[in-house]
Specification:
This protein has 401 residues and is of the alpha+beta class. It has helices at residues 15-23, 62-71, 87-97, 104-107, 113-122, 136-145, 169-179, 220-226, 240-256, 290-298, 302-315, 370-387; strands spanning 4-8, 27-33, 48-52, 78-81, 130-132, 150-154, 164-166, 186-190, 194-204, 207-216, 230-234, 261-270, 276-282, 328-335, 351-354, 360-367. It has 3 domains: 4-101, Rossmann fold (3-Layer(aba) Sandwich), CATH 3.40.50; 129-190, ATP-grasp fold, A domain (Dna Ligase, domain 1, 2-Layer Sandwich); 194-387, 2-Layer Sandwich (D-amino Acid Aminotransferase, Chain A, domain 1). The strands form 3 sheets. Strands 13-12-9-10-11-14-16-15 form an 8-stranded antiparallel beta sheet, sandwiched between helices. Strands 3-2-1-4 form a 4-stranded parallel beta sheet, sandwiched between helices. It has a 4-stranded antiparallel beta sheet with strand order 5-8-6-7, with helices on both faces. The longest helix is centred in the C-terminal third of the chain and has 18 residues, at 370-387.
């Protein structure tokens, strides 16, 4: 049996998924936009490559008509969303064509920040105090109960995009007035200072078969809005921190009901009370090189394992993890002033990966020694800030594909 896997990609990512699916004997189809045509896709692993003439893969009914045309002569087994912005589109297509996988309602738990918070709270998972911004009386009641500052968050954007910090109630009313009819697509949440972590997991038959916990150097919101160097590194194994992160991660995944696939979940340890709170979860691989960070620490690349779970599911076979490694790794990434930065001065023996991308710089260091990784991440973050770093104004929403 040759599984046929159709991948949606609004942005250039997921090449490792496609390569692993091909390695597993699949017929691979990639559907993207014309803007992504000349990216470095692994064309050797793509059997059919389609660029759609409209700028946004979510545009209906165009995307449904396009996929329906492909399905006339192809018995597609699975539709996979390689980018966060394709998760809901892929879910709608699965519903329409009655294919297995996350459907439209469940997809909201992994894209809609209001839906995932509401679900988490219903299932007893700690979340920062939040409120929808539908009803003004309810908002005023929230202000009376929850002291500021707060953050106004888009419900369906990725990462920290579009988030505004609110210091006073008047700022919120001004922001809502600016949003007009779009205000119901946002939520208001208590701003919690603290350390932010991410846990990247592989799920099979509803169980977390693999999870790796990492701590961000700076919260993604701080990097996105204030500039600076993005960094993340493996947490110290065998500690209370790691145990707490794995516990709340399992609790969240069970609450969302994901049966198979991968997740990238974010949590914060509040400075005020030391408790861990759920921030968000995505049914996809973390970006900015996080997959490589996890791989160099554990021997598990989430993109590759995602492909292997999909193929095992299609074939009705068991999924088996690769042999695990318990090293430590650290990731440092930044925008760069230079078009192609010269990183030859970064040459420590623990350096295992360099980012090759125009106007970007990035490194991964790995070692069995946690302290050495922390030393290098701290050193590289400081050096990168001086040698290369550039900033760009934060986007309120993603550019058109």
């Amino acid at each position: 049996m040759t599984p046929i896997i159709l991948c949606l990609a609004s942005y250039f990512k997921g090449g490792i998924f496609v390569e692993e699916a091909k390695r597993q004997g699949c017929h691979t189809i990639l559907v993207t936009t014309q803007k992504q045509e000349h990216e470095e896709w692994p064309r050797h692993a793509i059997d059919e490559f389609y660029m759609l003439p409209f700028p946004n893969l979510a545009r209906q009914p165009d995307i449904t008509h396009s996929i329906a045309y492909l399905l006339r002569e192809r018995a597609v087994d699975r539709i996979v969303a390689l980018d966060d912005y394709d998760v809901e589109t892929a879910a709608d297509l699965r519903e329409h064509f009655r294919l297995p996988g996350i459907g439209a309602s469940q997809a909201r738990f992994f894209r809609d920040k209001l839906a995932m918070r509401t679900r988490a709270r219903q299932m007893g998972v700690p979340v920062p105090a939040f409120t929808p911004v539908f009803n003004y009386a309810a908002i005023n009641d929230y202000f009376g109960r929850v002291p500021g500052p707060w953050v106004l968050k888009p419900r369906s954007e990725a990462s920290a995009m579009g988030i505004r910090k609110i210091e006073q109630p008047d700022e919120l009313w001004h922001a809502l007035n600016e949003l007009g009819d779009r205000q119901s697509y946002f939520l208001l949440e208590k701003f919690l200072p603290g350390d932010v972590f991410h846990v990247d997991s592989v799920i099979w038959d509803g169980e977390v078969r693999f999870a790796s916990a990492q701590r961000y150097g700076l919260p993604p919101m701080a990097v996105y809005h204030g500039g600076g160097v993005f960094a993340s590194s493996t947490v110290l194994r065998g500690t209370d921190v790691e145990a707490a992160l794995h516990a709340i991660n399992r609790q969240v995944i069970a609450a969302m009901g994901l049966e198979r696939g991968v997740t990238h979940a974010e949590f914060i340890r509040s400075e005020e009370d030391g408790q861990y709170y759920f921030l968000e979860i995505a049914a996809r691989v973390g970006g900015a090189g996080i997959d490589r960070l996890v791989e160099y620490a554990t021997n598990v690349n989430p993109w590759a394992e995602w492909a292997r779970t999909v193929v095992a599911d299609v074939r009705g076979e068991p999924y088996v993890l690769p042999e695990l490694r318990s090293d430590y790794a650290g990731l440092v990434v930044s925008l760069a002033r230079q078009e192609w930065p010269d990183t030859s001065a970064y040459n420590d023996p623990e350096l295992v990966w360099r980012l090759h991308k125009k106007h970007h710089v990035g490194f991964i260091v790995a070692s069995w020694d946690y302290a050495r990784v922390q030393e290098l991440v701290s050193s590289y973050a400081g050096r990168v800030a001086v040698d290369f770093s550039a900033t760009a104004p934060p986007l309120e929403r993603p550019p058109e594909s």
